[in-house]
Write a structure and sequence with these properties.
83 residues; repeat; BNR repeat protein; Ub_ligase/GEF_domain; mainly beta
């Protein structure tokens, strides 16, 4: 995921819509990226609301985590993220 599809891949693919990434972290079936402007973006499975978009929906492309600005570090856990 991250490229807009639900295809499982064995090779890395470019994540759509993300440029100027400062850090990336991966949790259990989801990923999170910190951008150089301090915003946080997530994608993957969201059944535990770990994407931070207020829903349990999955996202095959990155979605911005609302309410997070000027973040300097991120760390993804099993089904949670610290910023």
């Amino acid at each position: 995921m991250g490229d807009g599809t639900k295809v499982k891949r064995i090779e890395a693919v470019q994540v759509k819509g993300l440029e100027n990434i400062v850090a990336v972290s991966a949790g259990n079936s989801y990923s999170v990226a910190l951008m150089n402007n301090g915003t946080v973006w997530t994608w993957g499975y969201g059944e535990n609301r770990q994407l931070g978009n207020g829903t349990r929906n999955n996202s095959s492309t990155p979605v911005k985590v609302k309410g997070l600005n000027d973040v300097v570090a991120i760390k993804a856990g099993n089904s949670h993220t610290l910023a």
